[in-house]
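testing teh design pipeline on a random one, pls ignore if ur not involved
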């Protein structure tokens, strides 16, 4: 899917939502999962937009694949840095 021109895959969104759910003791309701999904999409979009802005200011190019790879690394298994997931949690009220 494209969100504000940002390619965001279902897998990326699911990874963020899964990482949020894994950090909490209780299982979220279906309404909370819907909120987490929307917040994850927004957070992924903002992260990709920030990467593009940074690249543009430095006069360098970043491909969509580079953006996807960096986002995936930030939410990958075994990584503490989960800024996208944490931002999604804060937006959804699930933190």
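output:
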């Amino acid at each position: 899917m494209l969100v504000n021109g940002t390619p965001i895959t279902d897998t990326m969104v699911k990874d963020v939502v899964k990482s949020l759910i894994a950090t909490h003791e209780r299982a979220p309701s279906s309404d909370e999962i819907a909120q987490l999904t929307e917040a994850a999409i927004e957070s992924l979009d903002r992260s990709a937009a920030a990467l593009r802005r940074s690249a543009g200011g430095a006069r360098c190019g970043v491909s969509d694949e580079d953006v996807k790879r960096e986002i995936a690394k930030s939410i990958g298994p075994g990584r503490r840095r989960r800024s996208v997931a944490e931002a999604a949690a804060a937006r959804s009220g699930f933190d």
